[in-house]
UniProtKB/TrEMBL annotation:
Organism from which the protein derives: Mediterraneibacter catenae
Family matches, as Pfam families: DUF1919
Protein name: DUF1919 domain-containing protein
């Protein structure tokens, strides 16, 4: 049910998206030229709300990306929101803490560093092969994300 399926933003942009969800969902996509071979669009902010960038890495062109976005954004169920955030892309503790009182059923910040100041942070100890939290986003040969070996996704949804 997520409008963000098969696309990505930076983690700071994701926090902004959550914090200003109603605003961004009303904005028009503005596609921009990039070096990437997939469509990239901005949702433009105003004085108080930043412009964020959406990367439609599974769309073949801007028309398809826009159609998918428009179809997906209306299916958000406000009574059944979950947030999964990774401490990547220069995300600061202060930015993550903005989500402290975000209205949702559950949220988690997966991180490779201990963050006792964020009660909903889940520390995953790095090892020699997985030095950074971003490495946990990869999948094993069975299609399971690496972090799922360390964190119980089903339990998260059931809490």
């Amino acid at each position: 049910m997520s409008p963000t399926i098969n696309m990505f933003f930076s983690q700071p942009d994701f926090v902004s998206f959550c914090m200003h969800l109603d605003y961004y969902l009303q904005q028009k996509l503005h596609f921009i030229n990039t070096k990437f071979n997939y469509p990239v669009a901005e949702l433009r902010g105003d004085r108080a709300i930043p412009t964020i960038t959406l990367n439609f890495n599974y769309a073949s062109d801007s028309k398809e990306a826009e159609e998918l976005w428009e179809r997906r954004k209306v299916r958000i169920n406000r009574k059944n929101l979950y947030v999964i955030l990774y401490k990547l892309d220069g995300l600061t503790v202060e930015q993550a803490k903005q989500l402290e009182h975000f209205p949702c059923k559950n949220k988690v910040l997966l991180t490779a560093e201990k963050l006792p100041e964020i009660s909903w942070a889940y520390y995953i100890k790095p090892n020699e092969r997985q030095q950074y939290a971003s490495a946990y986003l990869g999948r094993n040969v069975f299609g399971k994300r690496w972090f799922e070996k360390k964190w119980d996704f089903v339990d998260f949804l059931n809490k």
